Amino acid sequence: MTAPATRTTNRLAPVALILAILVPIAGAVLGHITLRQIAQTGEAGRGLALAATIIGWVGTVAWFAFWGVFLTMLGAMAF
């Protein structure tokens, strides 16, 4: 009797998720790259890569929004 074949998880998927939390833009880009690799190879890890992509883009938008509001408020206080 043979053991069932197991799919390996793409090694970039958890890295992309960690990067999405620490450096959102890098995690988002790596998440897209990982999703493309998973589609080509059939590896596991699509959920991790998708989460990294979403968290990365949301974090990037939040980062820009924060700095936009902060700099606007700073400019308003100058007058």
Principal-axis shape equals rod-shaped
Give the SSE order as H and E letters. Answer: HHH
User: Which runs of at least 5 residues are low in confidence (pLDDT < 50)?
Assistant: none
- The first-to-last residue Cα distance is 79 Å
> How large is the count of helical segments?
3
Organism: Microcella humidisoli
Keywords: Membrane, Transmembrane, Transmembrane helix
Protein name: DUF4190 domain-containing protein
Domain DUF4190: 15-65
Structure description:
It comes from Microcella humidisoli. Residues 15-65 form the DUF4190 domain. The chain crosses the membrane at residues 12-35, 47-70. By secondary structure, the chain is mainly α. It has one domain. Helix content is 77%, strand content 0%. It has three helices and no strands. Helix 1 runs antiparallel to helix 2 (24-41) and helix 1 packs parallel to helix 3 (46-77). It is rod-shaped and about 80 Å long.
Summarize the structure.
This is DUF4190 domain-containing protein. This protein has 79 residues and is mainly α.
Defining key terms:
single chain; 79 residues; mainly alpha; 77% helix; DUF4190; DUF4190 domain-containing protein; transmembrane
Write the layout of secondary structure elements.
Blueprint: H1 12-22, H2 24-41, H3 46-77
Domain DUF4190: 15-65
InterPro entries: DUF4190
Keywords: Membrane, Transmembrane, Transmembrane helix
